[in-house]
Amino acid sequence: MFRSTPIIRWRKYDERYSLVGAKCAKCGMLHYPRVALCACDSSKFSPHKFNGEGTLISFTDVGSGPEAFAEHSPYCLGIVQLSEGPKITTQLSDCKLEDLSIGMKVIATFRKFYTSGEKGAIHYGTKFTPKW
Amino acid sequence: MEMVKEKSLGIGIVGHGAYVPQFRIKAESIAEVQGADAEKIKAGLGLTEKSLPAKDEDTVTISVQAARNALARAGIDPKKIGAIYVGSESHPYAVKPTAATVGEAIQAGFDTMAADTEFACKAGSAAIQMVAGLVKSEMIPYGMAIGADTSQSSPGNALEYSAAAGGAAFILGREKKEITAELEKTLSFTSDTPDFWRRGLQEFPEHAGRFTGEPAYFKHVLGATNMMLEETGYKPEDFDYAVFHMPNGKFPLQAAKKYGFTPEQMKPGLVVNRIGNTYSGSSLLGLSAVLDIAKAGEKILVTSYGSGSGSDSFIFNCTKRLESVQNLAKKTEDYIARKRFVNYAIYRQHMELIH
Amino acid sequence: MKIGVIGTGLTKFGEVWDKSLRELLAEAQLKSIEEAKLSPKDIEMIFTGNMCAGALSGQLHIGAMASENLNLNVPSTRVEGACASGALAIRAGLQAIESGSAKIVQVNGVEKMTDVSTDQVTTALMGAGDEEVEGFQGATFPALYALMARAYMKEFGLTREELAAVPVKSHKHGCMNPIAQYQKELSISDVINSSMVSDPLTLMDCSPITDGAASIILASESVAKKLNPDAVWIVGSGQASDTLSLSARDSLTEMKATRIAADSAFKQAGIAAKDVHLAEVHDCFSIAELLAIEGLGLAKKGEAGKHAAAGYHYFDSKMPINTCGGLKACGHPIGATGVKQAVEIVHQLQNRAGKRQVKKAETGVTQNVGGTGATVVVNVFKR
Lengths: 132, 355, 383
What we know:
The complex is a heterotrimer of chains A (132), B (355) and C (383).
Chain A: H1 7-10, H2 13-18, E1 20-24, E2 30-31, E3 45-49, E4 53-62, E5 75-82, E6 87-92, E7 105-115, E8 122-130
Antiparallel strand pairs in A: 1-2, 1-3, 4-5, 4-7, 5-6, 7-8
Chain B: E1 12-19, E2 23-26, H1 27-34, H2 38-45, E3 49-52, H3 59-74, E4 81-87, H4 98-105, E5 113-117, H5 123-136, E6 142-150, E7 165-173, E8 181-193, E9 196-197, E10 206-207, H6 213-232, E11 241-244, H7 251-259, H8 263-266, H9 272-275, H10 282-291, E12 299-303, E13 308-318, H11 320-325, H12 332-337, E14 340-341, H13 344-352
Parallel strand pairs in B: 2-14, 4-5, 4-6, 11-12
Antiparallel strand pairs in B: 1-7, 1-8, 2-3, 6-7, 8-13, 9-10, 12-13
Helix pairs in contact in B: 1-2, 3-4
Chain C: E1 3-10, H1 21-35, E2 45-49, H2 53-57, H3 62-69, E3 76-79, H4 85-98, E4 104-111, H5 118-125, H6 131-135, H7 141-156, H8 160-174, H9 188-193, E5 196-198, E6 201-202, E7 212-219, H10 221-227, E8 232-241, H11 256-269, E9 278-280, H12 286-295, H13 304-309, H14 326-330, H15 334-349, E10 363-370, E11 375-382
Parallel strand pairs in C: 2-3, 2-4, 9-10
Antiparallel strand pairs in C: 1-7, 1-8, 4-7, 5-6, 8-11, 10-11
Helix pairs in contact in C: 4-15, 8-12
């Protein structure tokens, strides 16, 4: 059963649902996801909610995803640079491979990721779609 | 003309938001599999296609998207939302509330009352009434009500042509300068009527055929609307828009005919033609479509319907602020116009993932 | 640094149905001891690289398994760094000898991958990335390398045909290596037309699922000189880390950790990139080979694809790469790969590589990667 405990996902709800990362209290650098130590060596942060806009840096598709993702296959995957700076790995939804291009604008959307089987929890989070 | 005016409730919508998935299936694609005459079906049901969720969408994700759009229009701090109620017949969990996930996803904070509601297709409008009570009684400053569904229908059944996916969210408040549509009055007409139901472990609902018409839909929709007109003294021509629950494209027009509502009054809210019946989202998406284009001073009548049975009726009066928030989020029509067609096999593949 | 490799051992690489994890490991262990003309009791310390035995066989604690195989009570430790586990085990051995903790160390690598479904393997391998950032998004390893491939193709104009030259060359080499998983040549169109795994990478761009084990015996300089006049010397070793997830890296089109590890290893070995005669690099996916070649300084950024297409990387050409067939054709039993790379370089420098012998091979380099570049180990070998 793929990562069947929902607890490992629960503690990141604000990060996953609302794109909440961290802003370094010392140098102002923005991080997503949260980190323990900033590049400037400070470990003090305040929460920062990213606006959900970004640019597609690269993309691909997963024809047959592993285990829990199998029923969602095929799906597109990419690396998005959030408008405020950090880069993230994200599924790309509501699109086919041919709709995507490096440099296109994308926006955040709230989607389902996988379920831990028929009896298990349903896991949600943020994916990105081409901006429309 | 003299109108019986109730004392103003002093509350109303401060932000509304819609969400309809991108995917559509044409009536032709379903008729082909059912071995039916597509043109007859389309004419009989008054719809050409319906929406279906993406593989990664469900009632929770639709509710969150609609809620975020409503927040964008309301422009308030989500922490001030004191209650969230989500109505649906397709909550992903039988036990674990959609409302709690919506609350987390909009960052409403711990200080929130929340629950999910069920009353077939009027679960969402019932939620609006619940929130209205909490806001009017000043127990909370703002409350959110959502109606959303990813309706299931069994292969070969007539409901296959119309059971669709979508939802709308409404934030209610009582700050006069924030209200976009003042809630003038709301009432309900309820009875125990066995027209359509789904037992706990069943995947698909049952319906009682022609019994779903007169003794069910019409009795309650007309019952509630009549009560509303009597108690307020309004006449149909006093309204700029009328929205009725849309199980198909025909029933709401038949109800409209009884009152003499014109096509101009009905058209803006008649979303069913191109997206089907979004169940708990149906009349609410009709309302959000109207709010997207209405002008200050215009009056809206909404009567929902939920099998089992009941109808909730509302009168809203649009304010100047409504016009300034319409463009702050994607409109109902933006979602309706955004479409990607799939064939029957893909449609079934998507619906397999709805729990 | 001057540490001798005085014995090597390899099992067959492929779908070895009749051998278990333990049996594969033991086979390689006994072979390297035999080649070194030692007795098991001469082994003072053991390091064994392995990534997936926990997920796929429910077996952790491989260190104890390796010493038990030899009936020893010596210090024996499992080393893990995803696909770099093998080379990391070598580093642990080098450090043990450098520190004087041991004079004769056996370094092994083993993986048993074919007992479970492809699906389970794909899921287990995702542990080489960042579970929360990449795993949650369903980012498989082919997908992550495909993201690099697409970005690289856009930045440097690498064509699909040029990229295909990599596995074509690897399979040619594999046919000359008796223990390689694949003994079949490929054409450019075979590669391009094989089924798409993660656009633009096809099945033939991806290393396979393989069982196998590899083993080497390391000895301090004085012991090696006494025991084996033909010993090959490890004269430099470098290791570097980078972010677990691909998205947190500075660049999608170069592997920073390769450059840092290579700089460190080359400096220690007193060599420059131009002194390298041949290299075993981590071609888990075809694009990875190009990134490795550039990271080692064997080609300028953006040029490795052109070199591959021009045939530079064949055993008898300008810069022999992966003469054993690489991960693609020889196979990729994860934990064993880093050690197998060392075995190939040792055999080449000892003039025993048979049909695929590189002429006048004096200085060889291995590059072993963990994940998408979060760990890289570079070792330098000299005649």
